[in-house]
Amino acid sequence: MLIPIYGIPLTNLLYVAIILNCFSYWETPLSNTRDDFTQATKRMLSDRVNGICSAPTCNKSTKGPSGSSTDAMVSIGVAAHICAATEGGPRYDPTMSQETRKSIDNGIWLCCNHARMIDVDPEFYTVQRLQKWKIDAEKRAAARLNLKPIPSRKVVVSINDLQRLNYFSGIYSSQFLDDLKTERFRAKVPNSLIDTLTIAHDKRDDPKLEFVNEELEQMRQELISAIEAFMDHFKQQSGGNKESYDYIDLNEIRRKYPQSVDKFADMIDKTRELAIEVGNAAVKFEKFSSHLCNLKGQTDTKLLVNYPY
Fold first, then answer.
1. Total domains in the fold of the chain
2. Residue 136 is part of which domain span?
3. Burial level of 108, CB count in 10 A (0-12/13-18/19+)?
4. Residue 89 scores a pLDDT above 50
5. Fewer CB near the terminus (10 Å): N or C of the chain?
6. Which residue has the higher pLDDT, 233 or 299?
């Protein structure tokens, strides 16, 4: 006796054939044309850059502890393909073998934001550009291995210098530095970024901002030099308006002057590099301030604890 399945009586061989055909389909694995990395390759891509995004303007850590569990972690990192894993994807190379396409040589570790960014604009984020990102990121990771803790030491910081230190730390806040590092410097650049740097540039010779402490004054001079280099480069292609600065419109250049795309893409890269140098110089004030501790009974003498030069 044939038992009904899902209320359908199996009264003839047609139903049996249909069901057997369904089982046959379910047991056949779906074809996978995507050349994905193995878990081991993904881990190695992450480990080779200490879990830090390889984009030169990011430097964001992609792994950390879970806020909801003491024995778990969270990750915002992506093992991204330099040449796409599947046909039709960004930077797909049809001459590349499957093994090469899913090898570590074709991978780069990025935060989720930059992983999305490189795929949205593959004409700018070329294979050569991403390969350079990867090499440079691994060099930075190697350099970090050589960092050694610096012992605490006493420094003399006057009340006036502390006020100047707070002034610089306030202008170059964490939010401002994050915005500066992540700015793409394309057709429109926010006034808030450039105006802040312009004001600092205009006040570079203001004696009221000069530090008495030689170490802090050296930091200020480094910041001034970085801002001057950035402004000299940026103003070559920029023009201000009410809400933003007009800068390099790659889409317009690609349409009108396709032969010049690489030239202007390199100019954008240089702008980003100079912006990072400004950020690296400016963040020293906040780091310096955060490592200062009061010495008991001494107004002008501070203890500088493990300051990362």
1. 2
2. 39-144
3. buried
4. yes
5. N
6. 233
Quick check: 156 pLDDT over 90? Answer: no
At residue 34 the predicted structure's pLDDT band, cuts being 50, 70 and 90, is confident
Residues 167 and 287 in one domain: yes
Beta-strand relationship, 244-246 and 188-190: antiparallel
Q: Same domain for 137 and 157?
A: no
- Among candidate residues 116, 144, 172, the one where a domain is terminated: 144
- In angstroms, rounded to a whole number, what is the distance separating the alpha carbons of residues 265 and 126? 10
The whole-angstrom separation of Cα 280 and Cα 291 is 17
* Among candidate residues 94, 115, 144, the one where a domain is terminated: 144
Is residue 170 domain-shared with residue 77, that is, in the same domain? no
